[in-house]
Specification:
This protein is α+β, with helices and mostly antiparallel strands and 66 residues long. It has one domain. It has 2 helices and 2 strands. A two-stranded antiparallel ribbon has the order 1-2.
Amino acid sequence: MQKFSINEFQWLEQVPNSPASLTTRLSTVLYNSINCKCRVETMNPVTGEYRIVLQGNYNPQEVETQ
């Protein structure tokens, strides 16, 4: 797994992202984290729209700063 760059947070907020690229980037962030948790804020069964919040702390020794 590649090291996480702090600049990748800006990329995560860009829309639209493909599910495949978002999966790869989020996996990298989570892999380089000390701890993390996930919370489902909303789920609309009629429209299928959902909101998921990820929260955590990255490992500063593993993070590559640019």
